């Protein structure tokens, strides 16, 4: 059955040339004709081009993503729904996901980042969960690049402008600056939501004859081909001309939409609901129908429009923000419309669920599209693209001539924007609204309480592109380990992973190889920790004129605490406490900030023993749960010396540290980064019980020294520094680089 | 006592105010809908933080026209207690229930950080549980919190004791460095001439629990409870 659909007067004729301009390959265009049994109409061509785009179809990554562990006893919703969900106890379910908005943010930083936040929020509340926290992972070019300050300012203002106005706290994040991102920044936005168990919403259509409702903002021309042309192609000199494909966000409407959708969800009148994200009306309608194995019919004359004169093609491809599509129980439309009217939002009946498995759109009495639902969703092409390691070895920094003096190195590292305080960024975000934030930005992981429960949730997002550039497999493994460890440092038991995989052009074999190795690393690490990968997002084509970004898998981990009063922060608490170091292996300077600043001296990354990584994390969780830990801080950018300094920077009362147990003559001991090292403080009396937890597991655990009241950082004879002076360097770095942009 | 927390479209800290008053302080606190025209018997009305109507125009400029704001104006004219926090402060200024205006921060960016404020006048219903000179540690989170008013008006307000809170450093000294947003005379909170309407940029409702931000914000809410119970006593003895 080929269905009958017509192109409208004035629409261009569909041919191979037009298909190519829509980003469809000749083979894909042939497949479209085969699946339809005829030539597509102009509208249908547009629909196929977005649904089969890399961004929507995951055609290059799907075969790999299938290999990730998505199951687990705590998993409530797996991949395939809008976001993953995990049972966190006491009748609560946590829903979380991270997504990229890289290309839009590079083209238009404020709106690109803002709508990235808006989109990920909708993925969460479409599940029936109230968004309770956001995080962001940001990658910018070097400060020497002329656009970096503009992009940083715009992205941070956009994230704040949207997140602050929608009433969801931004509680953690990371930011990195490197010339490798000069022409392709990364903006990955994460959102966490909470729902009562059993009250999650589905995106699976049910019930032939059930009405389809369009709710939220009216449709305009913005964002047309955002998914296909902007997100699924490399950048070039003409990219700036793609600015009109970036959408404009309206956080006020989003806030109303959150409240209205959650109220509507409680009414029980909603059968299925999905955000109109990438490819808007087309993807939401076809994906809901596909999951239910049903058909859907849309009446385009009823779509609320921001301006008159939109064609069917434009309506179906628009990526206007703050819109949702839902399937209602037949007969309960008015009840739902009343809820949306209370919040001053559109709620129009625009179609119905059918039993014929067709995705059909009508406009002014004509059928403009009639496509098998499966062709859009499940039968999109899937590629196993050629993958091969690069011929050239990865680029390394110039060789190190001579190690700088430890004092100079520490000061330089603390002032390095990748190490320095990110307060300039996070103080532009509301981290307090909703009254759940018990540990906010600035410590290893954020911790939220769950009101009415003793439980808490810890969350952190990490990436390690330097290590991934050297070895995409080990880099991915180490990124998972770091995010998991950060959550454990806060005292929480890691419970689930979400990921945003940022890579270059998958049509190049070495990029596909990087991606395949990254997936293997992610899978092996997730399996070793016994963690499900509950949701994720792939962002390909992060390259400009043939220069790809380093492989950047961004990993966010959610952890659960049975008793939130046992949370731990990275800051030293009291003089007299012992400072311990626990580690799984010997640190290395390879891929470290030290190496990037001063030159390469290490041959390559140290191997990672996942079994030992898990023991380290398990030990941290047990020790925190037994209240044996006063502070815990993961050693990451800048190494041990920086980690100790950061732990001294207690905002309420700066502390000092005196360490004699460090081999200060060895730069890799002071400034090496991988694999895993954690700095813990404990009361003297708890030393034996604490160290037994780690030594019994076969890990290195030893006392380095103690916390002192005098705010000085002393490491053997190598360092004796004023902590307040170091804090000044650490806090002053970003504001200094942005002088004139902020007081 | 009975509290009403107004929920405008775009209010964000309404739930936090209800939590602080109801769950933490055990008060009788209810949400009031912006389309309502009565205050449901509230003895103190709270205009919470947020971005009412998106604040795409001037902050608070649209919210002041909400139906419930007519009821708030009547209630204030009758001497009822009204407190506006952050966006609520902006709305009260737009509604001319408080003098002055709130403009963009000196830094031109949104700021979320702890501040120290000094109680400048403890002889008001909003500060009577504190002493003049007390320091409170509260969070601010706003993009438009720079308080401005004509110099002559500021002089008059200072004379009458309408400046209730001022940004200071941890030692209690007002300074340019301790002024987070460039407010004139470091003003963080003001009352009207009758001392029954109070607006402040810091968020006391986010400083009521030790686990979150400390409890200094309780001082302000407790003042209201205290003044209300003593004025009730006064009303009763007058009636006898």
What does this protein structure show overall?
The complex is a heterodimer of chains A (743) and B (240). With 743 residues, chain A is an alpha+beta fold. Chain A is 34% helix and 24% strand. Chain A has 25 helices and 28 strands. In chain A, the strands form five sheets. A seven-stranded mixed beta sheet of chain A has the order 8-10-7-11-9-12-13. In chain A, strands 23-25-22-26-24-27-28 form a seven-stranded mixed beta sheet, sandwiched between helices. A six-stranded mixed beta sheet of chain A has the order 1-2-3-6-4-5. The mean pLDDT of chain A is 93. Chain B has 240 residues and is an alpha/beta fold. Chain B has a single domain (2-239), classed as 3-Layer(aba) Sandwich (Rossmann fold). Chain B is 26% helix and 25% strand. Chain B has five helices and eleven strands; from the N terminus they run E-H-E-E-H-E-H-E-E-E-E-H-E-E-E-H. In chain B, the strands form two sheets. In chain B, strands 2-1-3-4-11-10-9-6-7 form a nine-stranded mixed beta sheet, with helices on both faces. In chain B, helix 2 links the parallel strand 3 and strand 4 (81-85). Chain B is globular. In chain B, 55% of the residues are buried. The model of chain B has no long low-confidence stretch (mean pLDDT 95). The chains are: A alpha+beta (743), B alpha/beta (240). The A-B interface holds A 157, 160-161, 164-167, 250-253, 255-256, 343-344, 426-435, 437-438, 449, 451, 564-565, 742-743 and B 9-10, 12-13, 15-16, 19-20, 23, 49-51, 53-56, 106-113, 139, 141, 143, 203, 205-206, 209, 211-213.
Helices and strands in order, then pairings?
The complex is a heterodimer of chains A (743) and B (240).
Chain A lengths: L15 H6 L4 H11 L5 H10 L2 H4 L4 H4 L9 E3 L6 E6 L2 E9 L1 H6 L1 H17 L4 E11 L7 H19 L3 E8 L8 E11 L14 E6 L9 H5 L20 H17 L2 E6 L4 H13 L2 E5 L12 H6 L5 E6 L4 H10 L3 E9 L3 E6 L2 E7 H5 L28 H10 L7 H4 L10 E3 L6 E4 L6 E7 L2 H6 L1 H18 L3 E10 L6 H21 L3 E7 L3 E2 L2 E2 L3 E10 L16 E6 L9 H6 L11 H16 L5 E4 L4 H10 L7 E4 L7 H5 L5 E6 L4 H9 L4 E9 L3 E4 L3 E4 H15 L6
Parallel strand pairs in A: 4-5, 9-12, 17-18, 24-27
Antiparallel strand pairs in A: 1-2, 2-3, 3-6, 4-6, 7-10, 7-11, 8-10, 9-11, 12-13, 14-15, 15-16, 16-21, 17-21, 19-20, 22-25, 22-26, 23-25, 24-26, 27-28
Chain B lengths: L1 E6 L6 H11 L3 E6 L10 E4 L19 H11 L3 E5 L1 H8 L6 E3 L7 E9 L15 E8 L3 E3 L2 H10 L2 E6 L18 E5 L5 E4 L17 H22 L1
Parallel strand pairs in B: 1-2, 1-3, 3-4, 4-11
Antiparallel strand pairs in B: 5-8, 6-7, 6-9, 9-10, 10-11
């Amino acid at each position: 059955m080929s269905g009958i659909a017509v192109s409208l007067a004035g629409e261009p004729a569909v041919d191979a040339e037009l298909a190519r301009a829509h980003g469809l390959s000749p083979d894909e265009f042939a497949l479209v004709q085969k699946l339809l049994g005829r030539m597509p109409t102009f509208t249908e061509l547009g629909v196929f081009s977005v649904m089969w785009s890399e961004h929507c179809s995951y055609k290059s990554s799907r075969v790999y993503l299938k290999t990730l562990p998505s199951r687990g006893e705590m998993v409530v919703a797996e991949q395939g729904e809008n976001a993953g969900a995990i049972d966190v106890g006491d009748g609560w379910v946590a829903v979380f996901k991270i997504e990229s908005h890289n290309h839009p943010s590079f083209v238009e930083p404020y709106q690109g980042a803002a709508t990235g936040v808006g989109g990920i929020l909708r993925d969460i509340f479409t599940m029936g969960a109230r968004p309770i926290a956001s995080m962001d992972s940001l990658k910018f070019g070097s400060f020497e690049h002329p656009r970096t300050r503009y992009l940083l300012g715009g992205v941070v203002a956009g994230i704040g402008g949207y997140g602050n106005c929608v009433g969801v706290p931004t509680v953690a994040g990371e930011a990195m600056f490197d010339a490798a991102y000069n022409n392709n920044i990364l903006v990955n936005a994460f959102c966490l939501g909470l729902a009562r168990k059993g009250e999650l919403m589905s995106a699976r259509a049910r019930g032939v004859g059930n009405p389809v409702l369009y709710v939220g903002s009216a449709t305009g021309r913005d964002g047309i081909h955002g998914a296909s042309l902007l997100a699924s192609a490399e950048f070039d000199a003409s990219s700036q001309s793609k600015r009109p494909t970036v959408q404009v966000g309206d956080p006020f409407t989003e806030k109303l939409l959150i409240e209205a959708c959650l109220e509507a969800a409680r009414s029980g009148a909603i059968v299925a609901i999905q955000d109109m994200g990438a490819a808007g009306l087309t993807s939401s309608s076809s994906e809901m129908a596909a999951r239910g194995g049903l058909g859907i019919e849309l009446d385009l004359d009823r779509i609320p429009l921001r301006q008159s004169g939109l064609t069917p093609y434009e309506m179906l491809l628009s990526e206007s923000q703050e819109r949702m599509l839902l399937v209602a129980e037949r007969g309960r439309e008015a009840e739902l419309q009343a809820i949306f009217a209370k919040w001053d939002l559109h709620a129009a009946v625009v179609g119905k669920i059918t039993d014929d498995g067709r995705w059909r759109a009508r406009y002014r009495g004509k059928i403009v599209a009639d496509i098998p639902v499966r062709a859009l969703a499940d039968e999109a092409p899937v590629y196993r693209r050629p993958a091969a390691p690069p011929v050239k070895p990865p680029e390394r920094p110039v060789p190190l001539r001579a190690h700088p003096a430890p004092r100079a190195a520490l000061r330089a590292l603390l002032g390095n924007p990748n190490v320095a305080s990110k307060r300039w960024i996070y103080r532009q975000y509301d981290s307090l609204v909703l009254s759940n934030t018990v540990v906010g930005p600035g410590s290893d992981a954020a911790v939220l309480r769950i009101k009415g429960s003793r439980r808490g949730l810890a969350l952190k997002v990490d990436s390690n592109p330097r290590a991934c550039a050297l070895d995409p497999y080990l880099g991915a493994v180490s990124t998972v380990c770091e995010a998991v460890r950060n959550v454990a440092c806060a005292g929480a038991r890691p419970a689930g992973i979400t990921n945003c995989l940022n890579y270059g052009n998958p049509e190049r074999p070495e990029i596909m190889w990087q991606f395949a190795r990254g997936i293997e690393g992610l899978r092996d690490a997730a399996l070793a920790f016994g963690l499900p990968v509950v949701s994720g997002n792939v962002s390909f084509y992060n390259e400009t004129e043939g220069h790809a970004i380093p492989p950047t898998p961004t990993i966010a981990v959610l952890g659960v605490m049975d008793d939130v009063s046992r949370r731990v922060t990275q800051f030293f608490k009291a003089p007299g406490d012992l400072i311990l170091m626990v580690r799984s292996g010997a640190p290395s300077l390879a891929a470290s900030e030290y190496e990037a600043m001063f030159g390469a001296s290490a041959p390559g990354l140290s191997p990672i023993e996942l079994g030992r990584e898990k023991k380290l994390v398990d030990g941290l969780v047990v020790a925190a749960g037994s209240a044996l830990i006063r502070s815990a801080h993961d050693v990451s950018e800048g190494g041990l010396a920086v980690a100790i300094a950061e732990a001294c920077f207690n905002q309420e009362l700066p502390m000092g540290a005196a360490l004699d147990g460090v081999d200060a003559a060895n730069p890799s001991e002071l400034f090496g980064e991988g694999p895993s090292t954690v700095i813990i403080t404990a009361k003297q009396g708890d030393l034996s019980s604490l160290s037994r937890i780690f030594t019994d597991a076969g890990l290195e655990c030893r006392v380095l020294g103690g916390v002192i009241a005098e705010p000085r950082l002393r490491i053997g004879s190598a360092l004796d520094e004023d902590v307040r002076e170091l804090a000044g360097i650490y806090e002053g770095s970003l504001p200094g680089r942005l002088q004139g942009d902020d007081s | 006592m009975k509290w009403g927390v107004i929920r405008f479209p775009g209010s964000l800290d309404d739930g936090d105010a209800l939590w602080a008053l109801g769950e933490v302080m055990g008060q009788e606190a209810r949400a009031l809908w912006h389309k309502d025209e009565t205050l449901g018997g509230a003895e103190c009305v709270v205009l919470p933080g947020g971005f009412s109507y998106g604040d795409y125009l001037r902050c608070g400029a649209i919210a002041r026209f909400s139906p419930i704001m007519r009821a708030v104006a009547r209630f204030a004219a009758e001497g009822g207690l009204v407190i506006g926090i952050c966006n609520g402060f902006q709305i009260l200024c737009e509604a001319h229930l408080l003098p002055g205006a709130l403009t963009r921060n000196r830094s031109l960016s949104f700021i979320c950080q702890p501040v120290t404020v000094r109680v400048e006048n403890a002889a008001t219903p909003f500060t009577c549980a504190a002493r003049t000179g007390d320091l409170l540690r509260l969070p601010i989170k706003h993009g438009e919190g720079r308080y401005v008013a004509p110099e002559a008006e500021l002089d008059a307000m200072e004379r009458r004791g309408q400046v209730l809170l001022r940004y200071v450093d941890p030692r209690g000294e007002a300074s340019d460095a301790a002024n987070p947003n460039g407010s004139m005379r470091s003003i963080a909170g003001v009352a009207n001439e009758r001392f029954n309407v109070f607006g402040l940029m810091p968020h006391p409702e986010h400083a009521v629990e030790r686990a979150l931000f400390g409890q200094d914000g309780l001082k302000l809410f407790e003042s209201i409870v205290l003044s209300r119970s003593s004025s009730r006593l006064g009303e009763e003895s007058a009636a006898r």
